[in-house]
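subagent[fold] <- orchestrator: predict structure for attached chain, return tokens only, no commentary.
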Amino acid sequence: MRESRIERRLASAVKTQGGLCLKFISPGWDGAPDRLTLLPRGRMAFVELKAPGKTLRPLQRRRREQLERLGFRVFVVDGVEQIGGALDEIRSGNGGDAK
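subagent[fold] -> orchestrator:
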């Protein structure tokens, strides 16, 4: 399965829950997560999408660590079966890896 298909499924699932799944583009800040996920009741997290079995590049790991040190949640999703769990964690306020 391609990363783009997982990304579309995430965006659709977020929309179904009444949220926004914004493409996160930050010029001059390479390695930023792919999506900013905003759910009702002020719940938000960054989501990095990967093709199945792919891992974060070193710069992506550093960006994740930077964001987490600031108190933001960053999820890595490499399969559609992880989307529900990640969204459950975002809604509940827990954070981390969807894997």
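orchestrator: received. Logging for downstream: The first strand starts at residue 20 and ends at 23. The mean pLDDT is 93.
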